[in-house]
Amino acid sequence: MLGKGHAEYLSLKHVVENSVSQCDGYVKVTGRYALKGFDEVLANISDGAKAVFQSSEPMWQIREGVVRSEVVGFKRETFEQLFQGQDESVGKPMEYVLRRRGDWMVENGFEVDFFPELEILQENVKDGGGRSIPNL
Description:
Blueprint: H1 4-18, E1 25-29, H2 38-43, E2 51-53, E3 71-75, H3 79-83, H4 94-107, E4 112-114
Parallel strand pairs: 2-4
Antiparallel strand pairs: 1-3, 2-3
């Protein structure tokens, strides 16, 4: 069993490989969220960033060794580096893999950026753990 993260990886891979416009950059947003002012947020992301992670508290991690993954930006050329290898059955969910790959990118001189705190448009939205959250 590879888990929900693997299915998400396959969906993203399909988009990257079959994108009509052959975009250079992509953003994955978990489907339950609509974000306020996201066009402006995107306009302020560094063009050189190879990956963009969430910055809402706790910044850069949920708990030791993982990073939040509701919103992740990436360049076409870093897609496989970031997402490939997810397998929840062996303790490697998306959040774990993204953290390890993000750390590797920073250590190896890749430019990494962070989204500002992102406001959710809807009220009383719950995260994957069932907690109400106002932002990401």
